[in-house]
Amino acid sequence: MENPAKKISTSYGVYLGIGLVLILALAYAFDLSLFTKWWFGVGLLIFVVILASMSTSKAKKVSVSLFKFKDAFAAYFLTVFIGTLISLVFGMILFNIIDTEAAKTLTELTIESTRAMMEGFGAPEEQINEAIQKMQEENQYSLVNQLKGYGFQLILYALIGLIVALVFREKESTNV
């Protein structure tokens, strides 16, 4: 018998992936510099958490047994995993196959943004130059670096997922 909560989480994961792909494609098409804006990243994070929370809520509604912390976390994390994996694959194809020049342009924009931010915080010129040199030497869009970034992203979403699971879990009622 198919687990309805798993089916819901999988569906929401696909919806999340499609939504992220559309957002990234629109940002790519209209203004690459959006990828360097802090608020764009925060907006994507909020979008992911909202859709994963909606998935967890729906999974709780269809649950026929006690919706434990483990169930809530699994529903949330499966949605995040599938959605962000779809987005990762799209990003890899876009920046490593379709338009490698966009990856170079984004690296330059990121360097400019980093320089401005570090200067704004009053960082010494030596430290700024060191950070920029490291960014120039390392390809942010390589397969290995994108997988590393994905791993760190999953850790962040998992930490948020712990909080979401606490909110949506059901406690066993105790008769004292």
SSE topology sketch:
Layout: H1 4-30, H2 38-62, H3 69-98, H4 100-120, H5 125-137, H6 143-168
Helix pairs in contact: 1-2, 1-3, 2-3, 2-6, 3-4, 3-6, 4-5
Please explain how this structure is put together:
The chain has 176 residues and is mostly helical. The chain has one domain (4-168). It is built from six helices and no strands. The longest helix has 30 residues, at 69-98. InterPro entries: DUF4199. Keywords: Membrane, Transmembrane, Transmembrane helix. The chain crosses the membrane at residues 12-30, 36-54, 75-98, 150-168.
- Counted up, domains total 1
Low-confidence stretches: none
Outline type: elongated
Q: What structural class do you assign from the helix and strand content?
A: mainly alpha
Helix share, percent: over 70%
- Give the tally of β-strands: 0
| Proportion of residues in extended strands | under 5%
Distance between the termini: 36 Å
| Gyration radius, in Å | 20 Å
Largest sheet: none
**How many individual helices?**
6
Mean pLDDT: 91
Helix/strand order, N-terminal first? HHHHHH
Summarize the structure in short.
This protein has 176 residues and is mainly α. The protein has six helices and no strands.
Supply the key terms:
6 helices, elongated, 81% helix
